[in-house]
């Protein structure tokens, strides 16, 4: 019984409507009608997902404090969602910046990452993975350091429409 991927995540949020709007408008998640009557929560599906839902949001109220995980308590640092192309990563960077939610980016050599925070300060990562067929020894060795992400340079290097994760998180022969 080996685990092979994350199916969904559930987050506690202070304001359900605000959080649904953020994940819908900024990251493109769509609400899925599956919450029971009277339930103070929502279920959302990522744009290209085949999952029943990818994100559950449970409202706990406006008096809830922001997470102190990693600063004052143990807890989850972030979740990472994968995009298919570097062009999609660039669009995501623009949308996060426009929403005031982009808090960082980094080049991990084998992955190209953006970091954002939702309205409750919960952090997440949006990542593009270098396809297995394009990984070389130098790229693998560079995983030990974190560099500044230059999306334009990476799009010139790999191509903006090159599918990420092929042979790693996406089967080598496209199933689409």
Task: Give a written overview of the molecule.
With 176 residues, the protein is an alpha/beta fold. 20% of the residues lie in helices and 24% in strands. The protein is built from four helices and eight strands. It has helices at residues 16-25, 86-98, 137-141, 151-158, and strands at residues 9-13, 30-32, 41-45, 55-59, 79-82, 102-107, 111-117, 123-129. The strands form two sheets. A four-stranded mixed sheet has the order 1-4-3-2, with helices on one face. Helix 2 (86-98) runs antiparallel to helix 4 (151-158). The longest helix is centred in the middle third of the chain and has 13 residues, at 86-98. It is globular, with a radius of gyration of 17 Å. It starts with 8 loop residues before the first strand and ends in an 18-residue tail after the last helix. The mean pLDDT is 92.
Summary keywords:
176 residues, alpha/beta, four-stranded mixed sheet, globular
Write the layout of secondary structure elements.
Blueprint: E1 9-13, H1 16-25, E2 30-32, E3 41-45, E4 55-59, E5 79-82, H2 86-98, E6 102-107, E7 111-117, E8 123-129, H3 137-141, H4 151-158
Parallel strand pairs: 1-4, 5-8
Antiparallel strand pairs: 2-3, 3-4, 6-7, 7-8
Helix pairs in contact: 2-4
Q: Give the % helix.
A: 10-25%
Number of helices, where a helix is a run of at least 4 consecutive DSSP H or I residues: 4
Mean pLDDT: 92
Total beta-strand segments: 8
Shape: globular
């Amino acid at each position: 019984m080996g685990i092979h991927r994350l199916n969904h995540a559930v987050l506690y949020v202070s304001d359900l409507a605000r959080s649904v709007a953020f994940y819908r408008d900024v990251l493109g998640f769509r609400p899925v009608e599956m919450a029971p009557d009277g339930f103070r929560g929502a279920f959302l599906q990522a744009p290209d997902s085949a999952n029943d839902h990818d994100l559950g949001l449970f409202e706990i109220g406006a008096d809830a404090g922001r997470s102190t995980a990693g600063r004052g308590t143990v807890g989850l640092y972030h979740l990472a969602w994968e995009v298919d192309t570097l062009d999609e990563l660039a669009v995501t960077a623009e949308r996060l910046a426009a929403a005031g939610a982009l808090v960082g980016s980094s080049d991990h050599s084998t992955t190209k990452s953006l970091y954002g925070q939702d309205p409750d300060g919960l952090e997440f990562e949006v990542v593009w993975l270098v396809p297995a067929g394009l990984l070389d020894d130098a790229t693998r060795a560079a995983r030990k350091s974190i560099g500044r992400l230059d999306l334009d340079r990476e799009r010139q290097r790999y191509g903006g429409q090159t599918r990420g994760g092929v042979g790693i998180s996406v089967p080598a022969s496209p199933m689409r």
